[in-house]
Specification:
The chain has helices at residues 13-24, 36-44, 59-64, 80-89, 107-120, 132-138, 148-161, 179-208, 213-223, 231-241, 251-254, 264-275, 280-293, 295-305, 319-348, 354-360, 371-381, 391-413, 419-431, 438-449, and strands spanning 6-9, 29-32, 53-56, 71-74, 98-101, 124-130, 141-146, 164-165, 168-169, 171-175. Helix content is 56%, strand content 9%. The structure holds 6-phosphogluconic acid.
Amino acid sequence: MSSAQIGLIGLGTMGAMLSLNIAEKGFPVAVYNRTAARTRDFVANAGELAANIVPAKSLEEFVAAITPPRNIILMIPAGEPVDEQIAALRPLLDGDDLIIDAGNANFHDTDRRARDAAAAGVPYLGIGVSGGEEGARHGPSIMGGGTQAAWARVAPVLQAIAAKYEGQPCAVYMGPDGAGHFVKTVHNGIEYADMQMIAEIYGIMRDGLGQDAKRVGETFAAWNGGPLRSYLVEITGEIGAATDPDTGRPVLDIILDRAGQKGTGRWTVIEAQHLGAPIPVIEAAVTARNVSAALATRKSGEALFGAAPSGLPAGAVSDAMLESALIAGKVMCYAQGFDLLRAAGTAFGWSLPMPAVAEVWREGCIIRSAMLNDMATALADDADRNLMFAPYFADLVGRHVPALRKTVALALTHGQPVPALSAALTWFDMMRTGRSTANMVQAQRDFFGAHSFERVDRDGAHHGPWGDQA
Ligand code: 6PG
């Protein structure tokens, strides 16, 4: 009974939602989960979509349910479980059956699995899927990596289930092997930075201005009607408005300030360091999550040094100024993410479709934002130029950096940590400094290690007169 057009393994939240999405778009989908009870419950709750879902109790039954050549999506935890699942599945498949890893894989793993698959002559795809539960159910953003032939085979299904931006599906082929998962990793790095900068602005509102959660929520909700319009700003507005049913207090106030992470932000930073690509805003955001985890130490620090004085001078900060600061910070963190993608594309020989990356993030994903359409336009104009130097964004940044500077200066003066916003500002200042202080670093390197330096007035490698003039 090979009636399904596609198969999906792993009925956790994302897998279940993706299966319903596939079934809803008219593709009969075979589903399998390690625990059969979950498969049973899933189908029992699928309503009329159950007619398009073929549940399987064993891997053999699952494989038999899919029409060859089979296309099989894995939506299971990243890492070893994927290798184990592939090892269990491959012996049951034909040579032209395609395995698609749709989890948050480390792109190095996807590279390795793609190489192994190529050596065995079988097709393999690694796709980044963003949008959380809601996105998976009603339209995620999909970043594909692998062979073009494998992508072409499943593109009709992926494009049908993906989010649409003005009718255009947010499902795009990024390049070979781990390219799709790399783009998804950088998406998550930007996600971390965007979230952290919002949290820092919230900190200024809460601790500097004494605003309650409701007021914070109202401001973000209002900002979502302007240049900051984005999913993360929208949900921040809703979060501020939410009340804890048990205590009647704002939900924000009862949430412990210790942020988790599954690793994709950290991978972004690690890869950026390997590639020598500066992404200081994303680095600051990952570091801030690590610092947040050290809750007990922070509490001891507060007992020892005292908390920073709360309260900013009356009238020193306006909503408009904070909005403006966030606009500038947002452009910087996206610009750094695109720089990293460019560096990776060159280093790995991927030729990533830069404007299409911005396009695929316009809908469905967590970092979707009104700015991404203008970013796509700027990258289409010149994909090799840092986004901040594109005329549209140079003008935007020029107009909003003064507010970022005032915000960061005030926060720092009053002891309020703003690691990502200050990293954005410092990066801006570094990027507009034609004569930096690296000449001093070069002098020191040459002094203690005879590493040599270049001169401003002559070609070649030179050494200083160290010692001679002591
Ligand atoms: C997405 C998200 C998602 C990610 C969560 C949690 O694009 O849908 O990036 O893939 O898993 O945001 O990530 P952390 O646990 O690392 O914060």
